[in-house]
Amino acid sequence: MIQISSVQNPKIKQIVKWRDRRDRDRDQKVLVEGYRALTRAIAGNYPIDELYVCPELFQGKNEGTLIAELEQRGATAYEVSAPAFHKMAYRDRPEGLLGIGPQRHRGLADLEAIVRSDRPEFYLVCEQIEKPGNLGTILRSADAAGVSAIILCDSRTDLFNPNVVRASTGNLFTMPIAETTSAAAAAWLKQRGVSVIASSPHVDTIYTAVAMTGPVAIVVGAEEFGLSDFWLNAADVCARLPMMGEADSLNVATATTIMLYEVLRQRLAAGAVSDTGAVPDSADC
């Protein structure tokens, strides 16, 4: 393993620069920090080109096995001093593991070969989400609720921001994600016969009254302004969450999670999926 001790090492300086979006986008890099995120990268067959480790900061999570697996997959490993690692790290309490990989951008056409065909299609469309922490939390919830793929429309958020990686707990690397425009996404969903359900606080229909067991796409909008008129007009139905207090809306990640779990609740009740994520066979239904 290559040793790096100086905080002035060119590789350390380069990684510090990649904390800035402009430099990451220019070089098409993503920083993958922490045991769980790197484990998810392996699960999603996401390439890690370089791995920086600091044994002094390990937390006893079987780091040696993880490092060996990443090296076997082609990562070049560097052992760095604690001061050098702290300089690179994005987290306040780093775990001594930091991977560097390429950014992967997918379009709608790429989803064709990825989306599972053994269950009704289930998409989450995010229009102009602005905050990386919210987007990361949404990715984590989408994975848990069994979303087939996420479609980011007219995005204002850097998908590869370290806060997206952290808040998603690495599900950024396992969830199918396509980036496109709202118009292209709406046309694609219509062509596939997917019912579009727009989330809006300004309509009468309660979200639990909407049938969600068939092919469906939940559409959520920006934190401050919600969905654009385009999606409110393109949707097959608009639905809201009931609000019983003084607040007139929820955080977008919270509202999205509730909507996604209503889809899952209805599908579990209908026997379309089981709580293990599997599609039940005839004996289970």
Automatic annotation (TrEMBL):
Q: Which domain of life is it from?
A: Bacteria
Q: Which residues form a coiled coil?
A: none
Task: Give the UniProt record's GO annotations in the biological process aspect.
Answer: methylation; RNA processing
Q: Output the Gene Ontology cellular-component terms.
A: cytoplasm
Domain annotation RNA 2-O ribose methyltransferase substrate binding: ranges: 31-107
Keywords on record: Methyltransferase, Transferase
Which Gene3D superfamilies does this UniProt record tie to the protein?
Answer: 3.30.1330.30, 3.40.1280.10
Q: What is this protein called?
A: TrmH family RNA methyltransferase
Source species of the chain: Oligosphaera ethanolica
